[in-house]
């Protein structure tokens, strides 16, 4: 009996040790492949957002899914290319003009004339440069060292962007096969539940994207008005850059403020101060009013949950966490509503249209008093 007990204890200890080692190995594997996993997560996010467009195009106009997927992705890239052209063409034109005038501006600055000379005198940069000439030369020689790292970072970013695009394209293209294979592994009841969860998750991600775009449009429009009032040149291009930067939660308005305030200060100190004050006020309004309220309606989360989820995710995972925090919180709410026992449910059901009367379905999506899902199509 003693030997049997010893063998049982040894077996349990080996099981515990094996589980601990397997967990450590899994965490180490996740950490080693974290970059690829982030790419896959971002690609899945965009695939879920683009899938309804591909499904609608395939159902109404194009019968081949590969062609429908290609057309949707080409349209998305065409839109992005048009936005890039609107932003880059005026900037490249101005860079060319500046390059043509650079020798003349340099001569004027050395002679103590022109706008750059006035700026140097106003900020006392000429005196600083004379007093720290050796230090500036030393910094100049050190600039070549991080250049290699910068180039490597740019190449990695481009590779990641291309990988995300290819992954998202393949996910959308193969979505029906993946969904059918997954549903075939479970029973009819579980298949209906999975289909309902997927539909609610897709609605959450789409609502997040539409809400985020609405906030960016508001930010870009108000920025354009402020830049026009202060007579800052290229107000439309700068406002578009600010709207794109504002797609990033929490810090997007700060990035946009740097762009717009810099352009304002280059135009005049008064314009720069006005733009800076506007963004200080607007960022507080966006972070604590617009984003929580709009996202709470788009994703059906209360404003406090939206704000806390973004703050926590940004602290844990940085920029990617801030981008994915709100849809992740919405999907978490869907899972809680689906798998929490009916007597403990306090999470409201998602909006399913105006034709459904209250009380027709229970909070978990099944018939009242039962744990079974409704029949298909009901």
Specify the helix fraction band. Answer: over 70%
Indicate the radius of gyration in whole angstroms: 28 Å
Q: What's the N-to-C terminus distance?
A: 59 Å
In total, the number of strands is 0
Count of alpha and pi helical runs: 13
Helix-strand topology string = HHHHHHHHHHHHH
Low-confidence stretches: 351-378
Net shape: globular
Number of domains: 2
Overall pLDDT, averaged? 77
Largest sheet: none
Return the structural class.
mainly alpha
GO biological process, one term: transmembrane transport
Family: Belongs to the autoinducer-2 exporter (AI-2E) (TC 2.A.86) family.
Subcellular location: Cell membrane
Membrane topology: Multi-pass membrane protein
How would you summarize this macromolecular structure in one to three sentences?
This protein has helices at about 1-30, 35-60, 65-110, 115-120, 125-130, 135-140, 145-175, 175-185, 190-230, 235-245, 250-265, 270-300, 305-340.
Highlighted features:
single chain; mainly alpha; transmembrane
Tell me what the structure shows.
This is AI-2E family transporter. This protein starts with a helix and ends in a 39-residue tail after the last helix. It is an all-alpha fold. It contains 13 helices and no strands. Helices cover 81% and strands 0% of the residues. The longest helix is centred in the first third of the chain and has 46 residues, at 65-110. The model is unreliable at 351-378 (pLDDT under 50). It has 2 domains: 37-185, no CATH class; 187-351 and 362-378, no CATH class. The protein has helices at 2-32, 34-60, 65-110, 114-122, 125-131, 133-142, 144-173, 175-184, 188-229, 235-245, 252-267, 269-299, 303-339.
